[in-house]
Amino acid sequence: MRYITPTSVALDVGCGDGAHYGRLLAGIAREYHGLEISEMAVQVAQQNGIIARQHDLLTAFPYADHSFDVVLCIEVMEHLFEPSFVLAEMRRVLKPAGHIIISVPNIAHFSHRIRAVLGGFAPGGTPETSSRRPWADPHIRFFTVRSLKAFLAEHDMQPVELHGEGLGLFSTLPVISRLASRFVGWERLERWSQPFEFLAHWYPSLLAGSILIVAKPICT
């Protein structure tokens, strides 16, 4: 919200229906635009105050160069066949003094590392597919703190801030969490994890379930 102000013209790439954060930010920004592939989600997003358009992210964005003060892409890159193309388009429509905000799951989270040692893999897209049928999971691209920074650098973007969240200390342990949930429930495991969430901010590369990074264009 520090980057979305009453004077901001913002673009939300893959805005969905706007129910989580879009409605809030649309109420703050001067203009809050959104691109979304689902026609149904676009209709709901428009009801939530977003200037939403149906658009396939594999094609050029329908905006002129340097149109936006802020461009967001929250938990979308991991679903894309061509994330590099999408980031290039985000940078194209961003004003020279603007900011890009990207959030992605962290595949290097400690729970994924434990699972890999045990011979498993969970992309993290949905509970139905992630651990049982990872080949059918909607997450097809994977990022760590290091690779996300490299991804941005490839497009001449410089990180300004980096935040981690979603430690899930007791609710993300392979095998153990699933067994424990049968006795105490997932909600209680997540509640017990909350006091330790600060660790995700302290050491995001290992302990953050999701990485959020703010970046600006490198002046050339």
What structural class do you assign from the helix and strand content?
alpha/beta
Poorly predicted spans: none
CATH topology of the domain at 1-105: Rossmann fold
Helix count? Answer: 9
Element pattern in H and E: EHEHEEHEHHEHHHHE
Instruction: Report the CATH architecture of the domain at 1-105.
Output: 3-Layer(aba) Sandwich
Question: At the first level of CATH, what is the class of the domain at 1-105?
Answer: Alpha Beta
Walk across the major sheet and give the strand order: 3-2-1-4-5-7-6
Give the C-alpha Rg. 18 Å
Q: What does this protein look like?
A:
31% of the residues lie in helices and 23% in strands. It is of the alpha/beta class. It has a domain at 1-105: 3-Layer(aba) Sandwich (Rossmann fold), CATH 3.40.50. A seven-stranded mixed sheet has the order 3-2-1-4-5-7-6, with helices on both faces. Strand 1, helix 1 and strand 2 (31-36) form a beta-alpha-beta unit. The longest helix has 11 residues, at 83-93. The chain is globular, with a radius of gyration of 18 Å.
Keywords, separated by commas or semicolons:
single chain, alpha/beta, Rossmann fold, seven-stranded mixed beta sheet, 9 helices, 7 strands, globular
